[in-house]
Amino acid sequence: xxxxxxLDGRTVRRLSRAISTVEDRADGYEEILSGAYRAPAKAEVIxxxxxxxxxxxxxxxxLTAHWAGTGERVAVLAVDPSSPxxxxxxxxxxxxxxxxxxxxxxYLRSISARGEGGGLSAxxxxxxxxxxxxxxxxVVIETVGAGQADIAVADxxxxxxxxxxxxxxxxIQAAKxxxxxxxxxxxxxxxxxxxxxxxxxxxxxxxxxxxxxxxxVNKTTAGLITAQPAxxxxxxxxxxxHGDPASDSTLWRxxxxxxxxxxxxxxxxxxxxxxxxxGWCSESGRPAQRRRSRIRAQMxxxxxxxxxxxxxxxxxxxxxxxxxxxxxxxxxxxSPAEAVAELIRRGSR
Length: 349
Ligand SMILES: Nc1nc2c(ncn2[C@@H]2O[C@H](COP(=O)(O)OP(=O)(O)OP(=O)(O)O)[C@@H](O)[C@H]2O)c(=O)[nH]1
Ligand SMILES: [Mg+2]
Hints:
Elements: H1 9-23, H2 29-36, E1 44-49, H3 56-69, E2 74-80, E3 106-112, H4 118-133, E4 138-142, H5 148-156, E5 159-164, H6 170-179, E6 185-188, H7 196-211, E7 223-226, E8 250-253, E9 256-258, H8 267-283, H9 286-312, H10 317-330, H11 336-347
Parallel strand pairs: 1-4, 1-5, 2-3, 2-4, 5-6, 6-9
Antiparallel strand pairs: 7-8
Bound molecules: guanosine-5'-triphosphate and magnesium ion.
């Protein structure tokens, strides 16, 4: 890590303004992004998700203090699903950052989830580019384990950390259904509460099911695995991002770490597990692949928005052509698909 270290007030103010401009798509945002995307992409992006109240913010605070303590410059982004219209708002009560918020190399920011799904992951990628420009080593993003926003953040993250707690009972089944597919590392937080070890075993069991029949993986393996040559990739299809024993020499089986964010017990080991995953990724060339597919997705979205835009206006040739096509479909003279093909032909002339 480069350890760019302490932030000065000017850098923080400029960064905050730039993020707001980009979030609001306000005047000048394209120029800001042109500069930002020209900075080398080096920040490691960690997405943290899990059920409400699992202690994600407390854990993010502890991890952030840990990484900042090693000399890293760390940004924390809290995606706030409860107030979709509070873009750029100050961090609310939901975010507890007692240990890290006053550190000179830590920057905190809440971002709204108003651009859910694709919009949110594009917004996160843009903000990460701004943070790269400001020479951050690490970006930690908290979302609540509630669907769309998590998937969007998992898309934009280099490592996804899923946080569970003991005694979720039936809830864990529901929570796990979506969250067992996105985790690169799992934490069972509130390790000081009863039942924590049983929850670790339960999650380990659920991960084991996905890896059943995978050579080199058994109930006790975690983290980096030297793969055995395999003729059939087993049930690893859903976990392709963690390696394919048919072609990779190493696999990653998500480890499950017991922590107590409140006391700090287990936090260094959890940070170590995240770093081990990132290390495995970079050795296997995954960040480049994942970045390429992220940029591809972002460009396809931008391309479709740019192509549709002229047709969404109330005036202009494209809008007139579209209105004409609608009438012809209404009059049973053509199909919507044929009419669109014709619009595209005309648009490219
Ligand atoms: N016993 C115990 N309580 C904890 C621990 N970590 C967090 N908590 C408590 O759990 C509650 C929720 O913590 P948060 O960090 O706000 O949880 P969160 O997952 O960010 O919550 P939302 O963002 O609202 O979903 C707080 O009262 C914390 O003090 C822990 O290790 N042990
Ligand atoms: Mg929180």
